[in-house]
Specification:
The protein is α/β, with parallel strands linked by helices and 197 residues long. The chain has one domain: Peptidoglycan recognition protein-like (Lysozyme-like). The chain has 4 helices and 7 strands. It has a 5-stranded mixed β-sheet with strand order 5-4-6-1-7, with helices on both faces. It has a two-stranded antiparallel sheet with strand order 2-3. β2 and β3 (85-86) form a beta hairpin. The longest helix has 18 residues, at 179-196. The chain starts with 26 loop residues before the first helix and ends with a helix. The chain binds zinc ion. Zinc ion binds at residues 51, 168, 174, 176-177.
Length: 197
């Protein structure tokens, strides 16, 4: 008797198993307010784009609090440090937030396109923000580990090829996500490529 473990021979498609979804802090857990969906639009994920917050790290503040503060800021019109006025957004601009301790918080639900103060269209982008100013502050190992887990999962789940995993500065005039995150991107893309092959 011949045994074969290739399931495609039995007439159903071979789907590679997804890498594990990392543990995330849900919107309920951080006390998210409802999104204002009138200001948002739906999209389909085709890119993964990395950001940093560009503000000083707050290792003593809980992720729950950081996300609640970010949502408050996001949903109101506000003056930016640059002097520009930012309009009210429907929700936090990013889909995931990685705090200094490596915890991952769920921001805007993935089915809704994100927002930006810069000149690019984030439609189709899964937006991940890493806490800190990653030119001058540390890019913590715990943050890197979470970034890899999250990107490997999202890339597999939404079939995003490595070439569409980039930093914010690849699309717009900005220093975001900082040199330390930009240096990590080639390795991150390789990890995704290895996982696909
Ligand atoms: Zn950015």
């Amino acid at each position: 008797m011949l045994f074969c473990d290739d399931p495609s021979l039995y007439g159903y498609p071979v789907l590679p198993a997804l890498p594990p979804m990392p543990t995330v802090l849900s919107r309920v857990a951080w006390g998210a307010k409802a999104p204002n969906v009138a200001l948002m639009h739906r999209h389909r994920i085709r890119f993964i784009t990395i950001h940093h917050t560009g503000t000083p790290q707050k290792p003593l503040m809980l992720l729950e609090r950081k996300l609640a503060n970010l949502q408050l800021f996001s949903q109101r019109e506000d003056k930016l440090a640059s002097g520009k006025t930012k309009p009210a957004w429907g929700d936090v601009p990013y889909h995931f937030y990685i705090s200094t301790d490596g915890r991952i918080g769920v921001g805007r639900p993935l089915e809704w396109a994100g927002d930006t103060n810069t000149e690019y269209d984030p439609t189709g982008h899964a937006l991940i923000v890493i806490e800190g100013m990653l030119d001058t502050e540390p890019f913590f190992e715990a943050q890197k580990k979470s970034l890899y887990e999250l990107v490997l999962f999202l890339a597999a789940r939404y079939e995003v090829p490595p070439r569409r995993i980039k930093g914010h500065q690849d699309y717009a005039e900005t220093d975001c996500p900082g040199s330390k995150a930009m240096e990590e991107l080639p390795r991150l893309r390789r990890a995704v490529a290895n996982r696909r092959s």
